[in-house]
Amino acid sequence: MTALVKRVCANMVGRDFIVGDIHGAFDLVIQGMRAARFNREIDRLFVAGDLIDRGPGSHRVLGFLQQPYVHAIRGNHDHDFCTLNVDAMRLLGGIDWNGLGWTKDQTDEHLLAIRDKLGGLPIAMEIETPRGLVGLVHADVPQGMTWQEFTLAVEAGDEAVIEVALCGRDRIQSRDESGVLGIGRLFVGHTIQWSGAMRLGNVIAVDTGAVFRELGKEKGALTMVNVACGTGVLVGRPLDEAVVVHAEAADGPFGRYARADSPRF
Hints:
- By secondary structure, the protein is α/β, with parallel strands linked by helices.
- It is 26% helix and 17% strand.
- The chain has one domain: 4-Layer Sandwich (Purple Acid Phosphatase, chain A, domain 2), CATH 3.60.21.10.
- The strands form two sheets. The chain has a six-stranded mixed sheet. It has a five-stranded mixed sheet with strand order 4-3-2-10-11.
């Protein structure tokens, strides 16, 4: 049975990074890992959901999720894909509905394998870090709900709460700075921040439209954040590059880490 909330112990030897919605833009993920000198032996990469759709590289998601250093939660695109049979995938892919055009060139077996893998992803995650407990959810936690109340509701299968977790935008759209009690930091994606990662209380929105840059648009970038870096460097940085890495750790410069070989997935 799939665990709807995944709890991850502290990384005692390496660093933890979070990226926003990928939507098939895996080449930008690789660029970010290179820029951060990501070490695949000791570092970990967490993803705020929406790994597929829009981007033609979406078919690479299976190889990505098979990497031992990758930890991802489900986004609304991932969740919706899990509800489709092959016939529906073919029909919707033929009209590129909601970015499903990438499915047209894939075998039935590969699509079903992707569906099964995405279906095993949790809705939310909490990570122990040197700066306290960090949460990860694709869209939002219902306003007024503590992290503990939220995770209990998700684990109980509360459909209304899970819908907010996957699709909610109220906090971001209303610029609500009240935050979420019971968690040190909460990283979310889903709602694109064209000007860079945005902080609202202890909630940090890191979807900065990576796939649009990979599709050749002038705006959009992949944001990759070291969860231990200071909050100040997460906010207000203009997106003048295809990849923005907030990698300065609280305990020292990231440059002291050896660069690992270029990943492939």
